[in-house]
Write a structure and sequence with these properties.
- By secondary structure, this protein is α/β, with parallel strands linked by helices.
- It has a single domain, classed as 3-Layer(aba) Sandwich (Rossmann fold).
- The protein contains 7 helices and 10 strands.
- The strands form 2 sheets. The chain has a 6-stranded mixed beta sheet.
- A hairpin with a 2-residue loop joins strand 4 and strand 5.
- The radius of gyration is 17 Å and the shape is globular.
Amino acid sequence: MKALSVKKINKYFHEPTAFHVLKDISFEVDRGEFVSIIGKSGSGKSTLLYLLSTMDTNYTGEITMGGKAITGLKQNQLAKFRNEHIGFVFQFHYLLPEFTVLDNVMLPALKLMKKSKEEIKGEAIELLTLLGIKGHEYKQSSKISGGQQQRVAIARALINSPSIIMGDEPTGNLDSKNTKVVFDIFRELAKERGQTIISVTHDDEFAANCDRIVELSDGKLISE
């Protein structure tokens, strides 16, 4: 079963004038595959990620994840699906600065209400250990370095064991050392845990080391 299947996606913007931003996009992603979406500014890559992440439902075509058609689902169904199956890592980590590192990681799982608080806490500490942040659990998230904050954001993305992790320029704010750390974490997650990773990036080296590159130009898929 494919982790993700995209069939004939078309997307228009209507303001200030009608603009065809994504044109007949079709591709598939295997489970445990690490894929980068690349393209110049304005090529449609962030718009595509936004559709794949179920945040934008205004398109034609069909998106299927893990064999489940998500096109046409209602907003509340999509919110539930997102929380259970998709983890997000953005260029800006969006941690809650007044919360501890541990609280930030636990938040999505507490919201899902599938496990006890103790279980969630145990899993959050495990993830922070895996990502090399052990010892910082009770610090305010604003009191750790930028590279550490991005690793906390990855732990938060992983807490509900999503089948797909979506990254929007996840290394865009990091220096080369931390970029490599984040890349290696993603590579490990795909290889060891079978998690599918789809990341929009401007970083050629990051993209070149992925399993596959999906390249967009002027809203069209030009290579994969």
